[in-house]
């Protein structure tokens, strides 16, 4: 059976001058794991028994980044499933998109992570080593820009 994990791709909009493009003010939250290869990823984790996918994404975000569901706005119309092998076993990760209500909210990391960064798309893609994560970030960015 495939391992299943769920998470949120979290972004914030910085106040930018009226002449700036909306896309220029968007930053994405990535967390650096404190285990393994210390890769960078949005908050995510395994589904617990009896939990639905979105509950898992919200719980993991609270555990890993200290963010409550009430501090986020879930963005309608975006949900992404990634499929890839981990140690020879299939894994499915489901991501939703969420915007920070207050871009100055403090991030409180759990022991699972050692660092976090708010990054513009280009820098987020550099840190997210995996191609499917890079592609997902670009897709999210396009999605957000197309909604303006």
TrEMBL record:
Catalytic activity of the protein: P(1),P(4)-bis(5'-guanosyl) tetraphosphate + H2O = GMP + GTP + 2 H(+); a 5'-end CoA-ribonucleoside in mRNA + H2O = a 5'-end phospho-adenosine-phospho-ribonucleoside in mRNA + (R)-4'-phosphopantetheine + 2 H(+); a 5'-end FAD-phospho-ribonucleoside in mRNA + H2O = a 5'-end phospho-adenosine-phospho-ribonucleoside in mRNA + FMN + 2 H(+)
Record-listed E.C. numbers: 3.6.1.17
Gene3D superfamilies tied to this protein: Nucleoside Triphosphate Pyrophosphohydrolase
One example GO MF annotation: bis(5'-nucleosyl)-tetraphosphatase (asymmetrical) activity
Gene: Nudt2
InterPro entries with a match to the protein in the record: NUDIX_hydrolase-like_dom_sf, NUDIX_hydrolase_CS, NUDIX_hydrolase_dom, Nudix_hydrolase_domain, Tetra_PHTase
Cofactor: a divalent metal cation
EC supergroup of this enzyme: hydrolase
Record-linked CDD domains: NUDIX_Ap4A_Nudt2
Function: Catalyzes the asymmetric hydrolysis of diadenosine 5',5'''-P1,P4-tetraphosphate (Ap4A) to yield AMP and ATP. Exhibits decapping activity towards FAD-capped RNAs and dpCoA-capped RNAs in vitro.
GO BP terms, alphabetized: AMP biosynthetic process; ATP biosynthetic process
Domain Nudix hydrolase: 1-141
Segments traversing the membrane: none
The entry's keywords: Hydrolase, Nucleotide-binding
Designated name of the protein: Bis(5'-nucleosyl)-tetraphosphatase [asymmetrical]
Entry's family note: Belongs to the Nudix hydrolase family.
């Amino acid at each position: 059976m495939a391992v299943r994990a769920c998470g949120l791709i979290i972004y914030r909009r910085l106040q930018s001058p009226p002449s700036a493009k909306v896309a220029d003010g968007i930053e994405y939250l990535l967390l650096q794991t404190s285990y393994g290869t210390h890769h960078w990823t949005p908050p995510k984790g395994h589904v617990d028994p009896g939990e639905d996918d979105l509950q898992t994404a919200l719980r993991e975000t609270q555990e890993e980044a200290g963010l409550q569901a009430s501090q986020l706005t879930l963005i309608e119309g975006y949900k992404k499933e990634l499929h890839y092998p981990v140690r020879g076993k299939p894994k499915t990760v489901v991501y939703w998109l969420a915007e920070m209500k207050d871009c100055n909210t403090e991030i409180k990391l759990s022991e699972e992570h050692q660092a976090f960064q708010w990054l513009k798309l280009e820098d987020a893609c550099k840190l997210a080593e995996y191609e499917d994560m890079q592609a997902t970030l670009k897709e999210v960015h396009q999605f957000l820009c197309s909604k303006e």
